[in-house]
From TrEMBL:
A Pfam family of this chain: Tn7_TnsA-like_N
Domain spans labelled TnsA endonuclease C-terminal: 172-254
Name this protein carries in UniProt: TnsA endonuclease N-terminal domain-containing protein
Keyword terms: Endonuclease, Hydrolase, Nuclease
Transmembrane segment boundaries: none
Keyword set includes Metal-binding: no
Origin species: Floridaenema evergladense BLCC-F167
Coiled coil residues, start to end: none
Length: 281
């Protein structure tokens, strides 16, 4: 599929502003850049978020990994990716003040709107949500003088707004946690388990929970046995396990790889499971 024009002329900027790019919060937020707007090496992702219920546009593998970490965080309440540093005149002024060339379109040579990879809202309490800006870079890229120049413009922009800004590299992203969340992520929404009803989910949970806790057997063996016992489609119980973990109905050590071929160690946050199963109508 052909890419959209990458020109950052005033007409393109105006068009994106009219589309609501870089505006809104939560489900209403529209990132300044969509994956079809930029050159890709096949590592961009579109993922529906747990927290926002909208599709997120992630432009690199590292951005996607950090996104999964944010999705799992208890304190993060909103994730806005590809956030524009507007107005353009402000970053141009910062670049001039620092005597640094402003980023420009390689073809038109016109200045581009700079973006920060993530603007995060951390809800540490209900009264004082905190905004944090995070740029995602591979550690090796921080050896580039030009990259550091552009980061300095970004740092000054957020400093003027008294918003905490920082750089996250692959060294700060826990790979095992990311792989676990990636495995769970598609199963957060019960709608993905249709035609199962809430009553079905509660019944499967009530059968699975004691077996996963007590049996010294692999997760795949336990879930296959549950499928047989309840007469449901093979693989259904394993999908329910992913749903229970994604929704934290079950808790496990996310710093250890979740391997279905091994025993899964869990603690259960659901109480009176059997009563719940009988009470869901």
């Amino acid at each position: 599929m052909a890419k959209r024009s990458r020109s950052s002329s005033s007409a393109v900027i105006e068009k994106r502003l009219k589309e609501g790019r870089g505006q809104g919060q939560g489900k209403a937020y529209n990132p300044w850049l969509h994956i079809q707007d930029v050159a890709s090496q096949g590592l961009a992702s579109r993922i529906k978020g747990w927290k926002t219920s909208r599709v997120h546009h992630l432009l690199s593998k590292l951005e996607t990994e950090y996104f999964y970490v944010l999705e799992w965080s208890d304190i993060v309440s909103d994730i806005r990716e590809q956030y524009p540093l507007l107005p353009l005149a402000e970053t141009l002024a910062i670049a001039e003040q620092l005597n640094i060339p402003h980023p420009s379109d390689p073809h038109s040579k016109e200045p581009v709107v700079m973006t920060t990879d993530f603007l995060i809202t951390s809800q540490r309490n209900f009264l004082n949500p905190i905004a944090q800006a995070r740029t995602i870079k591979y550690a090796k890229d921080l050896q580039s003088p030009r990259t550091l120049e552009k980061l300095e413009i970004e740092r000054h922009y957020w400093q003027k707004r008294d918003i905490d800004w920082g750089i996250v590299t692959e060294r700060e992203i826990p790979k095992t946690v990311v792989e676990n969340i990636k495995w769970l992520h598609p199963y957060f929404d019960a709608a993905g388990l249709l035609p199962l009803t809430q009553k079905d989910l509660a019944r499967i949970e009530s059968v699975l929970t004691p077996q996963v806790i007590e049996a010294n057997s692999s997760l795949t063996n336990i879930t296959a046995l549950c499928d047989d016992q309840l007469g449901i489609e093979p693989g259904t119980s394993l999908s329910v396990v992913r749903y229970l973990l994604a929704n934290r109905r079950w808790a496990t050590n996310m710093n250890k790889p979740i391997r279905p071929s091994k025993k899964l160690e869990i603690t259960v946050k659901s109480i009176n499971i059997q009563e719940k199963a009988e009470g869901v109508g």
